Structures
1.
Amino acid sequence: MRTTLFAAALGAAALLGAIAPASAQRTDPCAGPITFGTTISATGTNSTLSDRWMKMTEIFEEEFNRMAGGVALSGCGGKKVPIKFVMYDDQSVPATAVSLYEKMATVDRVDLFVGPDWSTHGFPVSQIFEKYKTPSVMSNVATPRVYEQGFKYITGLAFHANTWSQNYFESLKNVNPQPKSVFWIVHDNLIAKTVYEIHKPIAEKQGIKTVGEEIFAPTTRDFTGIILKIRAAKPDIIYISSFDAVSVPLVQQMRQLRVTAMDVHHIMATGSLARQINLEGVTGELYWHEGIKGPYSDIALKVLERAEIKLFDYLWTGGRLDSYFVMIQAIEKVGKLDREAIATALRAPGAKWKRPGGEFEFDAGGLSKIVAFTHQIQNGAPVIIAPAAQATGTIKWPSPTWQ
Amino acid sequence: MTAIIAQLVISGLLLGGLYALVAFGLSLIYGVVRILNFAHGTLLAIGGIAASIIFAVYKLNPVLIAVVLVLVFLVFGYLMHIYLLDPLKKRNPFEATIGTVLVTVGLLLIISDLAAEIAGPTPKNIPLEFHAYIVGEVIIQRAELYILGGITLFTIALHLFLKKTWFGRAIRAVTQSPLGANICGIRSKQIHAQTVAVGCGIVAIAGVLWSLKFPVDPYGGFDLTVRAFTIIILGGIGNLVGALLAGLFLGLAEVFTSFLWASDWAPAVSIVLLLVILVVFPRGLASVRK
Amino acid sequence: MTGSATEKLALAAIFAIAVIAPFLGAYYLTFVFTMLIAYVVAQSWDWLHGEAGYVNLGHYIYFGIGAYVFSLGYINELPVVVCFAFAALFTAGVGAILSYPLFRLRGDYFAFATLALLPLFDLLAANLKGITKGTDGIPLPPKGVIVMGVDVKVFSYYVALAVCVAAFFLTIWLARNKFGFALKAIRNDEQAAEICGIRIFPVKLKTMALGATFAALAGACYPWAYRYIDPTTVFGLNVALIPIAMALLGGTGLLWGALIGTILLGTMQQMLLVQISGFQATIVGIVTLLIGRYMPGGLLRARIVRGTPGLGALGKEHHERLGVRPAVGAAGEALAIERRTIDPDRTILTCNGVTMAFGGNIAVNNVTLEVKEGEILGLIGPNGSGKTTLFNLISKIYEPVAGEIRFDGHLLNGLRRDTVSHVGIGRTYQIPRPFSDLTVQENIAIPLMFRGDGGLARDAALAEAIKFARFAGLEARLFDRADALNLQQRKALEFARALACRPKLLLVDEVASGLTPAEVRAFVDHIREMRDKYGVTVIWVEHIISALSQVVDRLVVLEQGSVIADGPLREVMADERVLRTYFGGSLKEHA
Amino acid sequence: MLEIRNLVVDHGELRAIWDVSLDVEAGERVGLLGANGAGKSTTLGAILGIYKASGGHIRYKSAEIANREAVQNVEAGIALVPEGRQLFPEMKVRENLEMGAYPRSARGKVAENLDRIFDLFPILREKQNQNANELSGGQQQMVAIGRALMSSPQLLLLDEPFLGVAPVIIEEVMAALNRLADQGVTFLLVEQNIHRAMEFVERAYVIENGRTVLAGSKQQLLGDPEFSNKFLGLD
């Protein structure tokens, strides 16, 4: 028995050893290519937001290396090295994402991470970055609590939940007649609830009273109950904090049941929503828009074009692309591939970072302080109405289609 | 208040009618073949997605779309039974049950993944804009009337089909007494395959009507399978009228729960109902009537 | 364990891999960790399914509950051990409580109801925000990530591995132990199990609670390692059915089924994940479908696997692992039945005004009957006259709507079915109901294990069963499954099983039909021997009166649920009323 | 009309019929007697085509019908009134009857046959719109017989038609069966109640353990000590 056990153990060890790829740790900080590890929710429930990103990332690798010529390493005599992505589908399951990041850290031995998306993934995966002391620029992980863990190696590109609708509520100060009341409709989801919880006091400070609030489950299909409550409450503003896909029947039924308000605000008033329902006159937030030119916008637009992605349809694509740009900037700031230095640079207080939508800073926890552009759907397309500097039009108030 | 109740009732009936439609197919299949088809709700989602794509690309009339999809689904159901499910009948009951679970769960995975790969994972619907009728404070969409009409007509048609045609009666006969049906000269294998086909055909119609009102995505649908099970247990296996009433009741219950209490608890209604019924009447409600 | 060389080797290899995986790197740790957890869930599911035959589609809720309880304990800064204990205990409690409503259900209805548990608990976790923090989920504080300089994942890994090992050996124990035999009897036929003296509900409840405990331990490992849970991660339908698929894939009810299924499906999923982009779920779906279609008993039961030398050992059914061979004994060896001295004046069974009705149909109507100790009573009557119903009343299949049944000093009214054999009643069924996927030996051993006095140990029961089998002429078929027997052999098996209940009163329901005259005579001798040698009282329902006439002391005739005659055979057969109502008058009338 | 030779039928691994041979001439009333489990019902099922024959021959009007589908046999004029009736409990009496005319050849004469059955069992005409499960046992038996008659059978196989039927109704059913016999229907009757069986049949076979062991006319059998021995057990 003892010999069999020993033989089996030996065999097993040999087998595992054979599977494990022998890849040496990189010793030369100037050698390319620099590998970025990431997972994308290409299948599963979150894939409605990100199903085209795998293709987009492949194109990004190609276009960036072609158009920019690679990452400029000042610490290596200004040599430009290409980037390379290692990427997997996390199937929208957090546990799968964790195992994949572990694999990328230990088997694929990627240099840096860019990802994952979504707060539910950000929580467990952020510990992997700490453990392997490998910096990551995550995208679309907007819940402040992820960044309140005191971690050093994480940063995240997303709207700051704290400032998500900042421009919107600012712009409301200048409309006439003034809105006096708001009804909150909230998708039962980490990010949607955070946005609602943060903006409720902001609105009330501005003198906009809450006359109703309702949280709905993602599988809700019939919203008549909620809508009747709205009609009874007669709010001036209806604020929908929800993912776009799950709110299709909500907005549709609001239309059908002739809900009236000065404005209906949807934090994800996207193109995919607009294709399914009449969004005319609805206000919302945009992360970035093809019409707004800024740093890297040439590369970004080229990538989007080739990947056949419209920012208006896939709202969060901007965050994804920005995480790539920010990581590249961080390497260039350091001038060579040095994880510790890159992590420090990313979290340097007051550092400015470029993105196609403008400049921004990270907060103390590592979450980008990005303020969304507020837009209104006019004649089927989004028109930026705030901030004033980038505005492409003015708000129609009260919203014409909700009368 | 009456206007509010009226509005809620309309929505509840609409939702419940659609639920019933989902349950009809499952009820027929379960009644005749005694197979738990885990892929049932997912088939509806696929039907809805196909319908909305056809609508978006060819701008076909939804009725025409339904006709096309029904034909496709009939064939699919027939082949599914002949090649995947029927051969399992030859195994012992233990293997037959497990085999059925594996086959239908496998199908569920395959069709939802394929649909997501081909059509994309985003939810889709048939965006028809129609005139609305306003009676006092109650608002009814013409599309909703069409859907309600569709459900009513279809239920009546199905009812007549089961009552009046030889084939429909054979389905009921096999459900109620397989041996008795055999004695009357009903070929059970044939009826089984045809019933699975018809059940899938009904799902196609449900899918089209569903996508007129609500969006569907390839990963959804399983919660509809659970609801459909609730409905057939509530309404009696193979009992169409029972399924309709149970579906309507469920729809109304969910709508009223969300208005009177909170919408995040509305999905609990059907689950709690199912559990309570099963626990109080362990052999289903049908056993009580006897 | 009497495992083959293949099994030892496989076990050693798997265990070795599992032990060293963390040293190969964090990726292997995480990958094997997910498999360890999946195995525990799959295996603990299979205790209820493979052993007891219940399809609990909602088993995954126990994983989720365990994860939640652990997390809540952890963020309230309880020691990890305490968190684990709470998770296990609380979840076991939930399992026990759920057993009460759920086990009222059978078959598909049980599956429906348990399936509904998943969305229900998902909803509870999402909506009971005060306790669970709703869809926000629970992040565990990062400060516990490194314990004693080691990543906490390593600890959770080895805890999970320990739980796996415990689950594996518990499976071996369950398959061989008396408790496991109770489950197997339940799987085959709950009523027959009760008749053999098994009190079934506590057995099912314990199994449910045990399964819940293990799933909860696996669930507790999860947040400990991953540091975050939310409702969809631990109650989501998409993850919940996978472990079940794994167990079914390998082969449910087999020692290696869940393990091999987990390894294969888990590895396949992981390979697809890292090597193929797109269509992963489709491929998993196709494999699942093909196994269901062509190997519905699971991979290990497939002919091709069973036929492969070495591999075949993994697919062994439990009884192929039981090593108890017949002890060579003398043919006339006494059965382990207490020899009672008969007191012919003592009344052993009294039915007083017993009535049973189904709906409006009165099956047994005000039957009053006395049976003396040591009597052999024949019970006849046309089809539908209530003979079998009367048996069912005495053996507590039914509770009479009126009247009183007393047996050997016990009032049977209100008695539980499983105590019937304990007070000394054994019975056979008209259509035999042996435990069909158990061997002849096991069938007979079951009542021996579950006697009122605590019963024999497994091996003793199996050895003792051989004597009963020999007595019933089944010695040659000792190791064959009951479903391979022909009708006569099944009847003989039932008879032996009833004797193994050590009855004072034996209820025999139509044994002779289908036997040759010589076989009938042998059977009659058996009946007589039971009475003369062991003092057993017998009531025998039979259509074939020629068989009865060889042995009965007294004949009772039922017609439409009522006793129409009661007396010595010859008197009864001459009774005008009997002849008229039972035989339609004398046959000569027709001539 | 019907000729069975050395029939063998297996239920899965169990052999139910080992060796049954019998003949039924057109217009005859033949009984099939035996104890529970002797194989009587299985024999009837095999004739109709519900069970597969593993061996032997069943010839009907000189055509081999063993292993033909039930529907073909119904179309050819065989009908079965099964043990336990096997009605469709939640279908109306009328619908139950109509199901008997399911084979294509029978569909043309539904109205005519319904009339005939309602004449035979007037109570069914009254109750035609009630669900079958609301009927008494006797009435259900009438429906079962009626359903079999809907295909205008020439050979009617009856499996324990008097089981669970009140004596008064038995007389009524018996009278109806006699009328059918007068109309030329051939009967093969399985019955445990010897008295009832002997009232009706002219000739009978006795089955034991799946084998035909005795045969003869009513008079022959009743005079045969072995026969009374089998059923009475008195020497």
2.
Amino acid sequence: MELVLIQILNGLQYGLLIFLAASGLTLVFGILGIINLSHGSFYMLGAYLSLTLTSWFGDIFLALAAGIPIAFAFGAAIEWLFIRHLYNRDHLQQVLLTFGLILVFNELQRILWGTQPHSVPIPAYLSASIQLSDTLSYPVYRLAVGAICILLALAMMLVIQKTRIGQMIRAGESNREMVEALGIDTRILFRFVFAAGVALAAAAGIVAAPIESVYPGIGERVLIISFVVVVIGGIGSIKGALVGALLIGLADAFGKVFLPQLASVVVYALMAAVLVTRPAGLFGRA
Amino acid sequence: MNAAATAEDTAAPVLQADAVNAYYGQSHILRNVSIRVMPHEAVSLMGRNGMGKTTLLRTLMGLLRPRSGAIRLRGADMTGERASAVARAGIAFVPEDRGVFPNLTVEENLTFAARPGRDARADWTLERVYGLFPRLAERRSNWGNQLSGGEQKMLAIGRALMTNPEIILLDEATEGLAPKVRDEIWATLRLITEAGIASIVVDKNLDDLFELAHRHMVIVKGEIVFDGPTAALRADEALIHRHLGV
Amino acid sequence: MVLAVLIALIAIALVLPFFVGTYGIKFTTRVMVIAILVVSLDFLIGVTGLVSFGHAMFLGLGAYTLYFISPKSEAVSALIAIPATIVAAAICAAAIGAIAVLARGFYFIMVTLAFGQMLFSLFHDTDVAGGSDGAYINVVPQFHIGDWLALDFGNRLNLYYFCLAALIASYLFLLWLTRSPVGRVLQGICHNEARVSALGFNTYNYKLLSFVVAGALGGLAGGLFASIDGYVTPDLFGWRESGLAIMMVVLGGTGTLYGPILGAVLFAILEELLRSPAMVGATIADHWLMALGFVLIGLVLVAPRGIAGLLERDRGGKPAAEPVEAKAPPARQPQPGKELATEELSRRFGGLVAVNGVTVGFQRNRVHGIIGPNGAGKTTLINLLSGVLPPTAGSIRLDGEEIAGQRDFLIARRGLGRSYQRTNILLPFTVGENCRLAAQARHPHPWRVSDAAYRQNEEAAVVNALQAAGLTARRHVRAAHLSHGEQRQLEIAMLIASGARLLILDEPLAGMGPEETARVVALLRDLAVDHTVILIEHDMDAIFAAADTLSVLVEGKLIAHGTPDEIRRDLAVRAAYLGQYGDSEKVPG
Amino acid sequence: MTVTSRGVSRRRLLQLAGAGAAVSALPLARPAIAQAKPVKVGVLLPYTGTYAPLGEAITRAMELYVKQKGGSLAGRQITFVKLDDESAPPKGPELTTKLVQGEKVDILTGTVHSGVALAMSKIAREEGIPTIIPNAGANDLTRTLCARNIFRTSFANGQVGLATGTAMAEAGIKRVVTCTWKYAAGVEFVEGFADNFKKAGGQVLKNIEVPFPNVEFQSALAEIASIKPDAVYAFYAGGGAVKFVKDYAAARLGASIPLWGPGFLTDGIESAVGKEGDGVKTVLHYADDVDNAENKAFRKAFQDAYKAAPDVYAVQGWDAMQLLEIGLTAAGGDAAKRDALNAAMSKASFNSPRGPFRLSAANNPVQNFYLRELKDGKNQLIRTTATAFSDPGTGCKLSA
């Protein structure tokens, strides 16, 4: 029973983290129609930004505050350089170009940060652990990551629900042409959305760095799992991404304990099952 | 209002298209279309389905790039500009399907693209739009997809007004609406015209169009076959029968 | 040009072993094996339009099949090994495809990715075959004739030429299949699945067939791949290998079959080149992955259609010459069309009743017009008649048989053909090919690889259809190059060719110029000789001229049905068109 | 131990072998060069991906050794031809072939990833080329798949496991939970461990296996906490090891359940885990502070050359060159005399920075094992737990 509770906690925390990464992916996919294979690279960017910025500023939260705008600007630049050429291209070309980006980003990472694994310190005030059983404690920072993810998710919902830019994004999702006809330059809107997607992935990477450690290729696992989440939730649906991410988090946590032999199959089997019963995902518009 | 329109007749047109040709893929949809709309003037655009009415409006709006010809707004060349630039320059578009954003509330639909016009004193505000359509005020926090067809049309018109345009392009102003709602829309369009906003209105109800607009254009197979005042059109029964009636 | 490149490639491949060392031979063997995988993937992606992100799973399945059937210390016969890898992969492809093909578009990409990853995990995490480190095949396949060792995969040259032959055979097989009746349908699905389905083909079966064929050849590639070094590893299943295969397809040019082969060659050369300091300098070689990344990005931006796109710049021929005035078709023998009747037919969408209790009969060998204002439910009505939508209530009888609720391709097979509001033809096909595909719908089973049995009948149907539609002179022009009016004519020709005896046409005259309109009206009149025709149209002049009966639909209800004269006099109809309000209100939606 | 600098490190280009760079790598049409040739050493190591730091350390040590000898061994100039194997097993055979047949190297060295090494060794056996494995620990390489021309200067996975099992039993531990990635190396490390640990009367309560390369360990930790063993034996490496050690510390399990493992659990990640790694006990065939002259000289030279401290991987690379020198000397500098070369190498015995080094009948190192404890960012030597400890070489048919 205790194990079950702990696994729920683990599943939720892991799920929230991948939600953050997947929400950017689903946003970019839903509104821009771009299959972005390089999304994992932006998670990696976040992790390495976390490494560098934390060493400069001494605190992970300052790194988060500084890292998000950096990632945002980086995302805008990438959109301008590469992604905007893809809007009217088919999915295959998007896949090819963003795969090329992965190779470039991986190599840039190697040049800038080297190949050693690194770790990012947890701030002293969050380094405590909460006693869960007589032998096991749950680290406070993990709870904090869960909280940060919830906060960022709430902030994102707030932006999307309450601000003008959020209204434009929602409008763009349902009727791109009408948005343009109302005087809003969708080129700039799209750049913003892509950059926001990059910033979200990077934010996930930044907060995850202290518990994940930072190493080359950190983004690839996140990429695949994010795609799984997007597909389960339904393309373009933030709500779907949240539900999908939590489902995956819990399935992963319980799969490991109860079906250890098939733990890595569970996630994909879940996705296949969802697609067979609901071909457009849980919250997708078919 | 008649007097105003007459006085402006000598002035420069607010919107002008010269010899515009437009295509969808291989199909030649607009053939050498030339139109002009004067400030404060409501003009009707008639023709059967598939004749190019919507395409003309979309081309004027910048949603479809003409292959040749020129489009000018108050003399400024808008040919080939993005729709967003055209909109900011002062053209608003109310599409046939209304284009209401289903996942935005009524108020959000109205405000998110709001923009001051050239003459800030006379600007359309939320209050003014709600004054025009009290029903929208009642439903301000409803989602776009919770509205009836008529309410959606009102919202689309209100949203266009909020951008404080020089001219509004209205596609199928009242199609598919209940009679009472149609009356309401026509009344509103007259108010808007009186407020000094020019318009091109597409509809199938000749009587209402005759009441609203003083100049009419008939488009057949992508060509403007008639452009003239109400009396001239009324007089041409053959034209009405051939291209507009049963 | 293309043929020259291919012949040159084969010639080079034939003599290459005499000029390069053993490494060169092995390297080229590997490229050829990958090319088999890639060309089979192109059959899926480019020909059928199914983008699989898990195609490498068949590489893995083929490789592991060879591992499983190879005895520890002796060679398995190539005569067994090669068919075994193909069959094993095909069986798995059938099982996986049965589920995967249900998904569409991006979801199909993800389902195939998921299956690939599942298989990867299965072989990586369990001990079924050596686990994560992979496993050896100690002796690769051989083939003995008596005592003579006819073929030994352990011999580099043997394997080299075998792989070359396998590649050429795979390419020719896929090319033949693509050009066969089956391939015609698959290409049709790629460009326009709805159209193909509406012609009466069960597209699910065809897509599954394509998945199995591609998987089987992927398995062949896997078996050969494992034979090169006698080593198999779970990574063969992984998404990276699948991704690389897609890269090569796109790099080479999708849908061309030969392009992806060039893509595989180019990719291999690029990889070799970029990591050789002597060729590109130490800095680039050190960061060769980045260089490769930039090359890929550049290619996407500069050559979106891949190498094949560069080779055949003018693919698709010249734009059509000026339309040729079709001669009046010779008179055809009158034949009975089909008769259609509905009773209390209704369809709801949530609160909206789009079609409301329509009872109407359409007699055979007449032209029937359906008119009504926008939103009146006309298109919904014909969607119900053709099986695109199931009705909420009511019945539809085709020649007296109930068809309400049947799938569209089944209704199509009963002789009901429909056209769409937006022209719905296969643009990359020629006029003749479009009709040929339609004619094939008379025998729509997916295992039809040869036209032989039906050639005469179907060729006659095509000739007849082209003649009836006035397109005989345009037979070899690509549909994309037709004028709008001709495209609509072609759509009608396809319906005729498909053997439909009842044609439902959605706005066949929309967007036509006056001359084109006149031509198509004449065509519609002529069609009634051997068909029943139902059409929706807004061009009142035309429809009053063309139709024998008119049905007027307003707000989902049939408000009038009769001859054009009767309709012209009907008050309710006048109200619907001339600005006087009708009695009914539209349900808010 | 490796010093890792936080933040942006200086861009470091891989040093490219001077003369080796002149060799065209294109497979097609290569003119044969017939001159008095240097001995070409093919190096197949990962320079990108997760294992890149290991590849780098091994390369550095090999180059340093040759450089110290004036660029030649046994009087023959040495040229390195390096290839990045990306730790991708499907590419293993191809890249090995490229080195052996394309580049015509005389000696083959590599690699880190066991899957790639198995692919490589298959071709090496077929070609008969003298091959030195400076890291990959797959048991089979020096058990069932052993060969006269294949040598290992690192370890067999099982060998390290066996040594650790003995050490843990000696420390009085009775009940253990093991924890590893579900892949071949992990399984071998655990099997070796369990063999010796059970022989010494210990009890393995549960094997927890996490799918590779999953690094979500919370579930495993929760299970460990619920089982409450005397100790945990864990094998992870690289980023996964960092995460496991840190998660273990964060779960406060260390206080009641000590964490043990083979040395790879903590090697190369000392600074990355920081204080949270304190108290982790590992057993390995090397420790930074092994007290012998060779180690001191080696560490100083490496530090001077690269401004970084060497790690166990560097030692393995270093010894690969020591071994090669012995072989080449015996063959009179002629790498073509493969029999002489192989024979001399398999009988080689020398002083390594890790202590006395010789090879077993299966050509796997017979070496000391050390118990270390991670403290203050260093794996501190506690004691030598086994001397001249050999892998059983089960299934190898070579005789000494």
